[in-house]
Amino acid sequence: MQAKSRIQGDIEFDRDGRQAGYLRAPLSRNTSGWGVTLIPIVVVKNGSGPTVLFTGGVHGDEYEGPIAVSGLARELTPEEVSGRVIMIPAVNPPAVNNDTRLSPADGRDMNRCFPGDPAGTISQMIAHYIDTFVLPHVDVLVDLHTAGHSGDSALSTNMHKVDDPALMAKTLALAEAFGAPYNVVFSGVDEFATLTSAAERRGIVTIGTELGGWGRVHVGGVKVGRRGVRNVMAHLGIAGGKAETDRPTRHMVVPGPQNYSFAPREGIFEPCNVVGDTVKAGAVAGYAHRVDEIDTPPLEVRYAADGVLWMSAGPGRVARGDVVAVVMTDYEG
Amino acid sequence: MQAKSRIQGDIEFDRDGRQAGYLRAPLSRNTSGWGVTLIPIVVVKNGSGPTVLFTGGVHGDEYEGPIAVSGLARELTPEEVSGRVIMIPAVNPPAVNNDTRLSPADGRDMNRCFPGDPAGTISQMIAHYIDTFVLPHVDVLVDLHTAGHSGDSALSTNMHKVDDPALMAKTLALAEAFGAPYNVVFSGVDEFATLTSAAERRGIVTIGTELGGWGRVHVGGVKVGRRGVRNVMAHLGIAGGKAETDRPTRHMVVPGPQNYSFAPREGIFEPCNVVGDTVKAGAVAGYAHRVDEIDTPPLEVRYAADGVLWMSAGPGRVARGDVVAVVMTDYEG
Amino acid sequence: MQAKSRIQGDIEFDRDGRQAGYLRAPLSRNTSGWGVTLIPIVVVKNGSGPTVLFTGGVHGDEYEGPIAVSGLARELTPEEVSGRVIMIPAVNPPAVNNDTRLSPADGRDMNRCFPGDPAGTISQMIAHYIDTFVLPHVDVLVDLHTAGHSGDSALSTNMHKVDDPALMAKTLALAEAFGAPYNVVFSGVDEFATLTSAAERRGIVTIGTELGGWGRVHVGGVKVGRRGVRNVMAHLGIAGGKAETDRPTRHMVVPGPQNYSFAPREGIFEPCNVVGDTVKAGAVAGYAHRVDEIDTPPLEVRYAADGVLWMSAGPGRVARGDVVAVVMTDYEG
Amino acid sequence: MQAKSRIQGDIEFDRDGRQAGYLRAPLSRNTSGWGVTLIPIVVVKNGSGPTVLFTGGVHGDEYEGPIAVSGLARELTPEEVSGRVIMIPAVNPPAVNNDTRLSPADGRDMNRCFPGDPAGTISQMIAHYIDTFVLPHVDVLVDLHTAGHSGDSALSTNMHKVDDPALMAKTLALAEAFGAPYNVVFSGVDEFATLTSAAERRGIVTIGTELGGWGRVHVGGVKVGRRGVRNVMAHLGIAGGKAETDRPTRHMVVPGPQNYSFAPREGIFEPCNVVGDTVKAGAVAGYAHRVDEIDTPPLEVRYAADGVLWMSAGPGRVARGDVVAVVMTDYEG
Amino acid sequence: MQAKSRIQGDIEFDRDGRQAGYLRAPLSRNTSGWGVTLIPIVVVKNGSGPTVLFTGGVHGDEYEGPIAVSGLARELTPEEVSGRVIMIPAVNPPAVNNDTRLSPADGRDMNRCFPGDPAGTISQMIAHYIDTFVLPHVDVLVDLHTAGHSGDSALSTNMHKVDDPALMAKTLALAEAFGAPYNVVFSGVDEFATLTSAAERRGIVTIGTELGGWGRVHVGGVKVGRRGVRNVMAHLGIAGGKAETDRPTRHMVVPGPQNYSFAPREGIFEPCNVVGDTVKAGAVAGYAHRVDEIDTPPLEVRYAADGVLWMSAGPGRVARGDVVAVVMTDYEG
Amino acid sequence: MQAKSRIQGDIEFDRDGRQAGYLRAPLSRNTSGWGVTLIPIVVVKNGSGPTVLFTGGVHGDEYEGPIAVSGLARELTPEEVSGRVIMIPAVNPPAVNNDTRLSPADGRDMNRCFPGDPAGTISQMIAHYIDTFVLPHVDVLVDLHTAGHSGDSALSTNMHKVDDPALMAKTLALAEAFGAPYNVVFSGVDEFATLTSAAERRGIVTIGTELGGWGRVHVGGVKVGRRGVRNVMAHLGIAGGKAETDRPTRHMVVPGPQNYSFAPREGIFEPCNVVGDTVKAGAVAGYAHRVDEIDTPPLEVRYAADGVLWMSAGPGRVARGDVVAVVMTDYEG
Hints:
The structure is a homohexamer.
Chain A: E1 17-26, E2 36-46, E3 51-55, H1 64-75, E4 83-88, H2 93-98, H3 122-134, E5 140-145, E6 151-153, E7 156-160, H4 165-178, E8 182-186, H5 195-201, E9 205-210, H6 219-236, E10 250-254, E11 260-262, E12 267-271, E13 278-279, E14 284-289, E15 299-302, E16 307-313, E17 317-318, E18 323-330
Parallel strand pairs in A: 3-4, 3-5, 5-9, 7-8, 8-10
Antiparallel strand pairs in A: 1-2, 2-4, 6-16, 7-9, 10-18, 11-18, 12-14, 12-17, 13-16, 14-15, 16-18
Helix pairs in contact in A: 1-6, 4-6
């Protein structure tokens, strides 16, 4: 039997056809004690077949996923589908409407809240609902992210290195089908509290994306995202057609912190490259400036590995210890 | 006789050699009643010759100018100079250290505060000092800006259309010497309270720049900025060498609001182009989305003119009435 | 043995006579590491007899209950009493002194925190103390609320529909004795984390009240509240006299969300009725306006059921999904 | 010649027909340097005849005026009009959208900012525009207000006592035509910086309104407001029909602070009456409670004059010195 | 004729006897549009004789002056007085009640607002009232301050070096009469916007005090303050008795910034001395630490002059440029 | 096996020599999703011998401990050591850099968060790491505190009364070795969630310190702190030399709340003594003033016990219920 949640929704996951509605999550405010936040959800089902869940807006300032998923949610008809497509384009509406990574309602990063808590704060409560009431219906999860205001990202999917070789192969194939220029395999990372980790614990084939950042809507990222969700449906046999891409996805790996460069002090960080550039370990990645001090020289930051620049610094102003560059190297399997 | 200011500085503008110090602007805080904000200033003078003023950091989240000007301020020696170079890389330290356009100390946009007020708030007080105690020494002003967090900009200089043909020619030549890919002439704009307008009222030859935006440090913008300040010194005969550029500057014009597109509602704005793209009047500039609402179609926004995209939307989330696209057209003189 | 709490109090619940003091709840602040919040509590006991607990100020902007309970706490003498009366007129002092529903110290709605946590935030800590150290002494709870800034309410008591017919009858009789114009039975509601639910889990006969709202002190609500606490004591035989009312209490029911109307969008909500009005399902309940947009027509909101308007919208400005009308219908037992 | 403003609008006040648009007031934000606030304005003109200006939303939490004026602005056609009707239903959009009296953009009460300043903060800039560019076209001003979150008001118009008997008579007639239950004459009040005072300085016949408060939308206040703006047009001969009311307007006077009662200390204020009640000087107006202190008796507050209660306290929690009651007495001319 | 103010008060300065009341300064708040801040004022007058004004609480976190002045205001009777004593123990109630130097209502330091502005923000409005309506009655001003949260001060009076030798002598004598351990003469300081400067512009004999700091109430500072206000009255012949002190006041001078030491960077500042210590130019005044960085050595700060330490750093954490030590040297006349 | 933590560090506790680095605690921010807070840690180990842990900066506004511990961490070499010294001078960097007792990242007092939670907020996460990954290596803990902004303290160590006589004797000896003027034994206190209590639960010999307060850096407190950490190493045989003090430590006791005095109301508290003064039960400890009210007499607060004043009030402005005086009496064993 399932745990209780204070969140209410009308979706019947087993019903054929298109259902579009909102999950009503209670959010007591000073001016609305019985107030709610409304989480949009659209389910399109037709016959039997696998279930894919597309999520966007777990963080509130990552736009390409919500645009791609909400577009699909408006357009997709049961006739196009064999199986089931669950679309939640704005998992975290308080953050989406506040245009921030963290929820303004509880100061939490929802992607550090899984598997959630039905008696916790709003981010924990939503995480719990997704984990407990949505994920059990799901075979495949694509959770769409970008680098938000934290940086820029080479357009890519990403996935954890998983132990089961069959599952690993399936996940690589899923990523390849999505069709971003790069797919990044993480290994040795503790990501216990993320949505993708929660999905993996339930045996769901899971990928994430990084489709831009710098707080802007990435023209190319939207294109890759829109195509990607269609490609995934085709790959899974849920929709017809076949996966389309410009070029084959290049599989990469980021084995751990050894591929990261960090800001050595607070100040303005001037990078030397943009994401997608080929870089060398030891080369200058950028400079940390103190523009309001006279005669304080900038500090050099160097790349930690050979490879391709996956993530670059976001805001011009960084804090000590912030990640300013992540290098990915080719995945050897 | 000059008006008084509560800001104190030790620079003697008429002394030969290099002077580097701070303007001490009083900023009473709750934990430091006699607190100050320190504005870095470096002056390098040698013999006679024109005076150029390079300013950055009038807004606190525009990085390329402060990087270029503070670099020059560390490196430039009197031996290289015939004339005088005044460098203020962070005119607005409270905003620079807060990483925001507006000053956190008084909520003001300093570039709407000129000619300032010595008894006003900190932004007004600094504006007054620059206008009253620095500008009278200046022949040429280059005030370096970017689109900050408000958008992205095609790398460019800009200038007002001025009535005096000789001054107009001089300003066009100065912009051309700076060597950005584009130079944009504004006409018919009321910019009374900006630093560049204040400079023009004093008969100073004046240009601004737009060297990036999206809240990131633009790799190419830094390059153009660093080269531009050197080019300007060469052009004015203050330093040796000659102005270098990749290609000739293309002179453009933005005659007024008729070249702007605005957000029709609050939501996420997906642009169709990036700055520098050639666009057509009436073509779709982008879409305003409501990703947390089901079945709400995006609204189309269209370009208002033929030309090249100069400014694009900044944050993914826009408010009703925000500028989301500015098109520039070729300048016919 | 009872769980520990960091809250300290001197009240001996079993002592005859009047005791008046404060619970000292530790609240570490930046300027007072050993600071506390002081929760007023008055106990009047005389011989044997049932124990009633009157609580107010669980939310900080609901005034009629605190006024009635603090008045009783100043006036009630042991001579008047057979049994025990526990009075806590301001359960949540940080919220009361901040004039808000939520506690400014932790951002929590205390009435979503029961049964609390002795190691949690201040609202959780107080909830735990009430649940663990006060409720075990209690036979009957009257928890006085209003609609706060969220809306206005028809003057009423309320109660959950409970399964045990004897307890149900006792609770209905208690509500009738309180003597508000209406008594509302909720059914099918998940209210796990409220004070009244916590009391019910302990077998306590429990009612709540709604005695006004709109952020104002309701002249009639204060009158009903003052009379109600006296009526309850008379009804239970704790004090002499008999329950007085203007007219018999009308028992009503709100079976669930089907009796609610919601705001269809953000904007100003103009209601068509005030609480206590008789309304019809399908009739216009009000209009959602966008007064800062030209030519945007208001959206109609309609009533969801026939009956009497129990709750109306609070602030003029509402968010999408806010409750703007709740209709109650006659209770058939 | 008129002073400059940074606010731009397209309305041509002398053109016949209906014009609906926005004044674009520049409001530099951290994420939109060229951002604006959009002030809706509708002008309906037909032939010659007097000009009336209806304004609402000078304060952001006073709803009845904006509802009435925006409704009229949507509906009114040139055919109905002889003369000119200018309608600005939301003069202060930052405050309206923030649901507060004060503007969140500069912390100002716009109704303390007239005649404004084109180089000041946003509230001063808008005040200046209204005063300098709109009022010169106006013969009659009706500025619609309520008591906002500060209190409740008997439904009323109000006006200053003016020295010119003819103007006084005209103003009384205008108020009577509006048709609220009461019309209140202020005398001896320094209101230099309000919109109505600014209008009077230009010789405009001017009234204000108080149509509710407590932060709610007053059902009766909306009705009186809607009818009132139509009545005024009929009275002035701008529109046909004749002024309708339920009963004749009762003219009252509030001669000065001697009719006010003030909160003697911080705490919860329990009033004894609601607006419209007849009250006696020296009778208890209410009680100031300290519900979080044991054994602190409430302080009595008494009425300062005989008459009818015009304004009552707003929020339950008041500060020392707040106005908690204003009594109006019959106007003797 | 006097300029207008929106502040109202009932004090008749020319009436004999004791008058105690409040100046009502309008402070429109979101929940109280007609709200005020109440400034306590007590005037005790008897016959002819000079007028002294004692002010405290111009800054909200400087306690010794308000304690001394409010105590005198409670106790002083007309019988004790020949002349007039005006006492305003809390000139800036919004700051006093917020426990901050700056006013929370407008973010201003009131002691940078003189001579004020009747149409400005609340701090400017109060400054204007004091300057325009109170100072004209005054012969002698004692404005009591401390170092607040900015630092600690040796117990002292202070004064500006004035040009008129007779006025200079009178002021030195007044300071000596007050009887603090030290009296500090400032010279060459631009203090245009302070209360004491405003008083000097009106020819008033004026001193200030520094009676402690560090945000605490200084036991010795209260004693010196209480005695000082009595001593001043005796010295002026307003009250009987004679000025009492423990030891003669030592006259010192702080000629300008050359006696100050500044924090060279942000961090924790460890001083080597406390106020009143004798120090040597070039000796170590303290160390600027970075306790959250490993292996970053503290920076030494040295004294700028020989003398006695007048002011020391306040909070442990300082910003770059903050004053951390001010040395006073013996005054030679 | 140890529980997991999301905090990462490179220190190998069993390695000989000096290791200096940072614990990287993940702190997702709106502008740095992969941001961290860096906790400095230095370990100096040489051969076998006991392990002492010195901690500072659990609260962010207590400076003397961080100064003493970071100084030791810079200077201590393996050659000086027999055993192991672990130094964490800034346990709580978000609070240290914000200069506040509570963490600005989660609003928590970290010294109320032990034993912590690896999935909790940042303060809970750090507390958990210290408890789970550091304390198991430790024999002796000295956790350095002051009274912060809450008050001032007589320079002292402190300890809990523990049941085991041998452990009690060891702890008293440790405190005596530290060599502060006073050592205070607490008894009967519930301090479950503090760092020192967490250490005691692991059988670690534990003392705390109070080395100043009032938000300033105490010159004498730094001296005692620096000497104390050296003395403790000497006492434990970890370093050579012998413990040095000015005078023998006086052992005192604070048995519970009966030795505390509390503020009876909100206002400015004027104390009559400074810490270290000998005081008598019933004597006036100070006065609670209302300086912004005329004719409101101050309330007297009296001492609750005979002894020496250990803690005095901190900020001048106190809230009702705040601790304003704590008296310690001689410890009789």
